[in-house]
Amino acid sequence: MHCYILFSLIAVVSASSNVIYEGPCPHVKPQQNFDFASYQGTWYEIARYPNAGEEGARGKCTIAEYLIHGYGTGRVKNSHVIDGVRSFIEGDLTLVGPARIRLTYTFDGLSKDSYLTVLNTDYTNYAIGYSC
Length: 132
Fold this sequence. Notes:
This is Bilin-binding protein. Residues 35-110 form the Lipocalin/cytosolic fatty-acid binding domain. Residues 1-15 form the signal peptide. GO terms for molecular function: pigment binding. Pfam families: Lipocalin_2. This protein is mainly beta and 132 residues long. It has a single domain (2-130), classed as Beta Barrel (Lipocalin). It has strands at 2-6, 41-47, 60-70, 73-82, 85-97, 100-107, 110-121, 127-130. The chain is globular. The model is unreliable at 1-18 (pLDDT under 50).
């Protein structure tokens, strides 16, 4: 079982978190020697950093499922529960830098990219992700 500790994940299914401020995103140090293929699996969100930009985002029991197709590509399926109903969204994954993943979701023909930097993980028990 993967337990996923998130400071921020992605801006989908109201499962995202970030601190809203003006200016460029701060530089964060990604996981060294990140193994994209080993990141594959199901991750359960157990914590996130709250912020005013999430008001109304009441999703609980957030799950991110990563399926790696080949070097640098894959699929993601995110879900969460609101008022007892689980909602899902799927997207594409692309490794775009050291421990930096672009997640692309399409809604009504429009694509939205989010970026996740894996700060630390042991690939089995925990992962800490950052999105800005």
